[in-house]
Amino acid sequence: MIITLILFNFVKKKMHPEKSDSGSNKSLIKLISNYKIPSVKSSVWQLINTLVPYIGLWFLMAWAITISYWLVLPITILAAGFTVRLFIIFHDCGHGAFFKSKRANEIVGIITGILAFTPYHRWHHAHLIHHRTAGNLDKRGVGDVWTLTVDEYKSRSRGKRFMYRVYRNPLIMFGIGAALVFLIMNRFTRKGFSRKERISVYIANLGLAVLATGISLLIGFKSYLLIQLPVMYFAATAGVFLFYVQHQFPDVHWYRDEDWDYSTVAINGASYLKLPKLLQWFSGNIGFHHIHHLSSKIPNYKLEKCHKENEAFHQVIPVTFISSMKSL
């Protein structure tokens, strides 16, 4: 099993890090406020250039499976990329960032959530808690990755330490855990869910059942599973990896509650993941995560523009795919 000693040591070192100037960080929030206004034209275009290829790939895979399944598998990877992009749209809708209209955000969010196997209100309830507690050592546990300091790890029983190592093993987290969350765990309600959260789970499940039934009537249930499962497996793996490196990366800062500050944590506790342009497009610019945490109301298609036009962000050290491997 692989354990991230680098991360452990860093978390220990950063339990009481020097805070950057919170005043200047708060001024950044004001500086980027102009980027928060969504463009209906840009949002609609992003929906078109995501949904149309996604649906087209489904038709292509449905045809390819009648010839050979080996033709289907490479296409499922591409379809997974568009599924990640759909999830980013879903994510923006939950923040009220994709459209000005709350109703439009909710409708598009629910639909894209169904396609991404994620209940809209349930997921966003946990995600908004994540935004309020990211980088806070005293408020871990909701919408984040299980993270322990060195002292906490040492104080756990041998069994708990083993479970922690298993949980954070990349093969488990990305290879099994990601698919488990999207395919299985998102299908169930749990104790503590609000009525709205429970209903969102039921709506997502109903939508998926209707989709699965309709597609199965056209191509057969077996063919549906042979296409849908790998698409969601690859998409879930990519999505969980992206989420992981957004807050688990070299030089990440964590704070105790008394030292925690929203704007400071956005800059020091969220990464700037610099991806190749194609992967940046598929991931909806979510690599500019430090900006997203400064203002979650900025639509994904304005994040890069915000980064480029404000020199303050040019000082942020980017995390690359290679350097992110140090935190696994």
Features:
mainly alpha; 66% helix; 16 helices; 328 residues; disordered N terminus
Describe the structure.
There is one protein chain. The chain is mostly helical. It has one domain (5-327). It contains 16 helices and no strands. The chain has helices at residues 5-13, 22-31, 40-64, 69-94, 102-115, 120-133, 150-155, 158-168, 170-184, 195-219, 221-247, 262-269, 277-282, 289-294, 300-309, 321-324. The chain is globular. 37% of the residues are buried.
Helix content: 55-70%
Poorly predicted parts: 1-20
Question: What multimeric state do the chains show?
Answer: single chain
| Estimated radius of gyration | 20 Å
- Tell me the major beta sheet: none
Distance between the termini: 11 Å
- Mean pLDDT score, rounded? 90
- State the order of secondary-structure elements, H for helix, E for strand: HHHHHHHHHHHHHHHH
Could you say how many structural domains there are in total?
Answer: 1
Strand content: under 5%
DSSP strand tally: 0
Structural class: mainly alpha
Detail the topology: elements first, then pairings.
Layout: H1 5-13, H2 22-31, H3 40-64, H4 69-94, H5 102-115, H6 120-133, H7 150-155, H8 158-168, H9 170-184, H10 195-219, H11 221-247, H12 262-269, H13 277-282, H14 289-294, H15 300-309, H16 321-324
Helix pairs in contact: 3-4, 4-5, 4-11, 5-10, 6-10, 9-11, 10-11
How would you concisely characterize the structure shown here?
The protein is mainly alpha-helical and 328 residues long.
